[in-house]
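#lab-general

N.A. 3:47 PM
ok so I finally got the sequence cleaned up, no stray characters, all 75 residues accounted for. can someone with queue access submit it? mine expired

B.Y. 3:52 PM
send it over

N.A. 3:53 PM
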Amino acid sequence: MTSVCQNCGSRRFRADRALAGRLICQSCGLAAGSRPNQGRSNQRLGSNAPLQSRRRLQWFLLLIGVAIVVVVITS
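B.Y. 4:20 PM
back already:
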């Protein structure tokens, strides 16, 4: 049985009743035992990057956005 998602490395799975109880990763939505899609659209979105790196990038971009809003409001 697959205990680690091959796409994002998560260990959190749930059984999807719509897919006859097949295990689905709760983090990325990939079915357990499936290989990640290597298409251009996934590479463009950065789905091959580790989950923590994407989260850090999201927080960094949020911090930059808040800083820009604060500068605009105070000027």
